Inverse folding.
């Protein structure tokens, strides 16, 4: 059973099997891989632990803000056992953090009644950050769509702001004996999977297989027999 104490952040994987709780000020994160039946404690970042943690949909990646006045972002790819630190553009006191389903797109801002901040965006899991053109204000809440293309932010006072990036989703392709496995994160807008035999004057045709939503990682997936010739695939607007 997880200890009864104060927690600054809790979260769950998309399928509910992986759970975590960040202990307030102890430098520990409690993690469960069996829907809370048993828990393990891991040391996080030192310096008082983490302030806020978000988790990828499949539970493989944890991303947390360093607590107090440390301007660090901490990332774990083994569910809290080990952590890697990256610099943040500003200090994380009272900060807000949101993530895409795969943890690659992160949005971050400082949110306190007496402190204003820009909103910063990373598309490489926190390795690099860009300041967005959002107003500099007291940001209080952030959210991201599964693919990270749609962002929503709310200040302490003053409505809700939204942002949309129209980039196409990334298509992941895997090959196993006799089959091709195609997958992509649930997109913010509709896309159609297409295929062509070549890239010189291609004749793109829609793939008729119906994609299946994998609830463990929020990916649409299609498995198709491997052809005896070259095939190219893309995601295109309908």
């Amino acid at each position: 059973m997880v200890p009864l104490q104060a927690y600054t952040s809790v979260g769950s994987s998309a399928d509910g099997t992986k759970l975590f709780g960040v202990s307030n000020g102890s430098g520990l994160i409690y993690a469960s891989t069996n829907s809370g039946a048993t828990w393990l404690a891991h040391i996080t970042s030192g310096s008082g632990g983490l302030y806020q943690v978000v988790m990828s949909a499949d539970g493989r990646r944890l991303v947390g803000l360093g607590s107090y006045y440390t301007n660090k972002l901490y990332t774990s790819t083994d569910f809290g056992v080990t952590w890697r630190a990256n610099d943040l553009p500003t200090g994380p006191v009272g900060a807000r953090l949101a993530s895409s389903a795969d943890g690659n797109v992160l949005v971050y801002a400082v949110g306190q009644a007496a402190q204003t901040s820009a909103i910063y965006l990373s598309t490489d899991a926190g390795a690099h950050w860009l300041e967005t053109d959002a107003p500099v204000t007291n940001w209080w809440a952030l959210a991201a769509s599964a693919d990270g293309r749609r962002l929503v932010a709310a200040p302490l006072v003053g409505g809700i702001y939204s942002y949309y990036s129209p980039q196409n989703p990334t298509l992941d392709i895997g090959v196993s004996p006799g089959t091709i496995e195609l997958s992509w994160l649930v997109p913010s807008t509709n896309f159609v999977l297409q295929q062509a035999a070549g890239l010189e004057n291609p004749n793109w045709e829609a793939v008729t297989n119906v994609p299946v939503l994998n609830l463990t990682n929020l990916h649409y997936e299609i498995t198709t027999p491997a052809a005896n010739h070259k095939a190219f695939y893309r995601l295109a607007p309908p």
